[in-house]
């Protein structure tokens, strides 16, 4: 029988992540004193589970209270989804960079969506986004086997994926902050491929 993954299980996993993932992956800037050249680096922890080929069906709300579901992907040629949680310093530190990228993607028919993997930290998340000057949509998914199974198989935060208009996940997840030119280029190359194929199919 398929067991339903609940909020309590996800909370336990997140607490374990906070202890297991290296500080440089999700440490706050003040946690890295003495390491001035790199306060936020990619996580070295690897995923033990596989990302599904398509994004699971889901419902939820964004942090403004608007209802959201899987149809959000149909609105753009490509959607970049960034998984994060509020106590992940690396997730928070990369937000201004993500906002710059999102602003540049608008003309390419590409959207950025943050996906908050906690369901009880909305107020804290809103304050973080306000402080970081972020205005891209952030979604809190409702509980569900598909989305919860996807979240518990992510063992490095932040993790970023690209989803096409049909909900297909394109390429491997990018683990850790988008803090190097190589990572940003790899993400942009993936986006460019998805957008080109979308134009061909119109």
From TrEMBL:
Residues 28-40 have a biased composition (Basic and acidic residues). Residues 28-61 are annotated as: Disordered. Residues 49-196 form the Thioredoxin domain. The keyword Signal applies. Transmembrane segments: none annotated. Residues 1-25 form the signal peptide. Keywords: Signal. InterPro entries: Redoxin, Thioredoxin-like_sf, Thioredoxin_domain, Thioredoxin_ResA/DsbE_sf. PANTHER family: PROTEIN DIPZ, THIOL:DISULFIDE INTERCHANGE PROTEIN DSBE. This is Redoxin family protein.
């Amino acid at each position: 029988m398929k067991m339903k993954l609940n909020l309590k299980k996800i909370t336990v996993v997140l607490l374990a992540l906070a202890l297991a993932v290296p500080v440089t992956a999700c440490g706050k800037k003040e946690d890295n004193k003495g390491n001035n050249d790199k306060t936020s680096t990619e996580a070295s922890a690897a995923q033990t589970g596989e990302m599904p080929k398509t994004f699971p069906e889901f419902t939820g709300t964004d942090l403004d209270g608007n209802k959201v579901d899987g149809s959000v992907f149909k609105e753009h040629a490509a959607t970049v989804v960034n998984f994060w949680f509020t106590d992940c310093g690396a997730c928070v530190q990369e937000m201004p960079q993500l906002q710059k990228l999102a602003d540049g993607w608008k003309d390419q028919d590409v959207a950025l969506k943050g996906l908050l993997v906690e369901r009880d930290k909305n107020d804290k998340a809103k304050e973080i986004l306000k402080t970081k000057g972020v205005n891209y949509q952030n979604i809190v998914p409702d509980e569900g086997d598909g989305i919860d199974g996807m979240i518990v198989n992510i063992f490095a935060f932040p993790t970023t994926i690209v989803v096409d208009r049909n909900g297909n996940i394109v390429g491997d997840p990018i683990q850790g902050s988008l803090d190097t030119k190589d990572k940003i280029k790899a993400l942009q190359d993936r986006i460019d491929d998805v957008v080109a194929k979308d134009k061909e199919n119109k």
